[in-house]
Amino acid sequence: MWKRATSSLKSLLSFHITQEGSKLNNAFHCHRFISGSPLHFQEKDVVSPKHMDSVITFVLGGPGSGKGTQCARIVETFGFKHLSAGDLLRKEMVSDSEYGAMILETIREGRIVPSAVTVRLILREMQYGDNRKFLIDGFPRSEENRIAFEHITGTEPDFVLFFDCPEEEMVKRVLSRNQGRIDDNIDTIKKRLKVFEALNLPVIDHYARRGRLHRINAVGTEDEIFEQVRPVFAACEQTAA
Ligand SMILES: Nc1ncnc2c1ncn2[C@@H]1O[C@H](COP(=O)(O)OP(=O)(O)OP(=O)(O)O)[C@@H](O)[C@H]1O
Ligand SMILES: Nc1ccn([C@@H]2O[C@H](COP(=O)(O)O)[C@@H](O)[C@H]2O)c(=O)n1
Ligand SMILES: [Mg+2]
Question: Where does a ribonucleoside 5'-phosphate bind (predicted)?
Fold first, then answer.
């Protein structure tokens, strides 16, 4: 299980995002344009993982389903590196980035930031440090996110966690989160829930069909939920040993 496709590095280094006719290129050309320039990758932007033996776990679920909370427990118990796509975007938003204003507006509206920005931030972060076990939280949020990542890295996640939570519970949790997030208000939450259903559920279905999805009932105490998560990672550790 702790394996990585051997084609990853090769794909990352040789893939030309602007190459005519490539699937990824087609995906990126669906993006809207910013300041007259297409939001797309160029070869120089593509960063490769240092090693080929990385473990990649995607962590999915609606807003407030408890992804970040459970990721902290997984980090503590199984030593993964936690990369939250939302956190990376918020960090980019307050930096000098040319995409700052676009990210702010997109998050405020509960929409999805183009993959060219998000995948680049994730891959950049994967370069730092020696930990090769990644929890990628809140990504992929759309089929377009998924296809971009899989084409750029030439690989699929080892497995995917889905925190399945009723809407009412998610709304309650987000409204009492109190972390000053610009999207933690009822109007944006309603939009995020619609986007989750329209764009993220198809990704979840995709990984279920691929046999990579672990559905977690996200209702209960944090401890109760972690007891469903634990065996997924414990089994993977055993396979690796
Ligand atoms: N099992 C739980 N029961 C009650 N509250 C919880 C539970 N798990 C997490 N919370 C709380 O719910 C809020 C949302 O949790 P968290 O930030 O982990 O969700 P998330 O899935 O990462 O959300 P988002 O996608 O908006 O980032 C937090 O305030 C957290 O403390
Ligand atoms: N792959 C992603 C992940 C997030 N976003 C945007 O960030 C917002 C907050 O994300 P959280 O995971 O912290 O809830 C989200 O609503 C999106 O606007 C994104 O575009 N793409
Ligand atoms: Mg979160």
Answer: 90, 111-113, 138-141, 181, 192
